[in-house]
Amino acid sequence: MFNRLSPSMRVALAFATVYLVWGSTYVAIKVAGEHLPVPVVSGARSLFSACLIGLICVVRRKSLRVPKGEWWKLIVIGLLFMSANNMMLTWGETMVPSGFASLIISTLPIVIALMEMGLPGGDRLNKRGWAGTLLGTAGIGVLLWPSLHHHAVRSGDERPLLGTLVLLGAVLAWAVGSVLSRRFRFKADTFVATGWQIGAAGIFNMGLALATGGLRRAVWTWHGVEAVAYLSIFGSLCGLVAFTYLLQNVAVTKVSTYAFVNPVIAVLLGVVLLGERLGPTEILGMAVIVCSVAMVVLSRVEIGKKEIVGMSGQAVE
């Protein structure tokens, strides 16, 4: 059916999928984390997604082999992306609203830009990029201050602060994985490589769930199962396919707009579906962060195709 659409319709559908599906994953992660232990959520969705990718490869008669010497690199990236990042994101969302979490995660392009600047042969920010980075830092401060001041100082509740630190750890894990991915220069098929990455992380996450008693404590409620299934099928599989299609057919700077569209979608869905609320100051922080990420992304137009890996932060979110 997709192949019957005109090229412009395919692009429009792919953009709609990346914007809406990836923006909605924050709500699904929030729901899943409220019903199941964090390692169980991450392990179940990763293994399910890996099985789906493997099944598609088998049906399409695509070899699952990867070039010699790349398997351990795929495992490292998979653990950073779908173990460290995903479990910290799920854990963080048990302590803060989903929309709030999405805004913290949206600073990923800024963190990657700063990491690249400190590495040999890394990309350099221009003046607009630096302005966006500084603006983003200010935006995080504006966003966090009301919640942290009210909960941590007045009521002694440290969960918002801990949740924020955990989410920043998730950002750092994905940023490191993105930088390494770019330098590893994988020769394996993208779809197959993604399957191996997700599969390795799924095995690790489930092992952790078993070792910590998460599987024993898990209560498989209907809403929890729904959330995990949504994350596996739509967040990982459909989102990845749409994102890959866009990278192959649209300028990367346009594709990268997901970095500042997804948080808006996540905030709106959090308000509508979960009853979350953001105060005036937090709304201002949201606007500042979205603008800052846009400035950083659009300041790197001259990098072109080199930036595909670094800017694909939520490819399996």
Please tell me about this protein's structure.
The chain is an all-alpha fold. The protein has one domain. It has 13 helices and no strands. It starts with 6 loop residues before the first helix and ends in a 19-residue tail after the last helix.
Label this structure with key terms.
317 residues; mainly alpha; 13 helices
Number of strands: 0
Mean pLDDT rating: 81
Largest sheet: none
Low-confidence spans: pLDDT under 50, at least 5 residues? 151-155, 301-316
Distance between the termini: 25 Å
Percent range of helical residues = over 70%
> What structural class do helix, strand and pairing data support?
mainly alpha
**How many structural domains does the protein architecture include?**
1
| Annotation field: number of helices | 13
Q: Rough shape?
A: globular
The succession of helices and strands, N to C, reads: HHHHHHHHHHHHH
What's the alpha carbon Rg, rounded to whole Å? 19 Å
The percent range for strand residues is under 5%
Short description:
By secondary structure, the protein is an all-alpha fold. The protein has 13 helices and no strands.
Record the SSE blueprint.
Layout: H1 7-35, H2 38-59, H3 71-92, H4 98-105, H5 108-117, H6 127-154, H7 159-184, H8 190-211, H9 214-217, H10 222-249, H11 252-255, H12 258-274, H13 280-298
Helix pairs in contact: 1-4, 1-10, 1-12, 2-3, 2-8, 2-10, 3-7, 3-8, 4-12, 5-7, 6-7, 6-13, 12-13
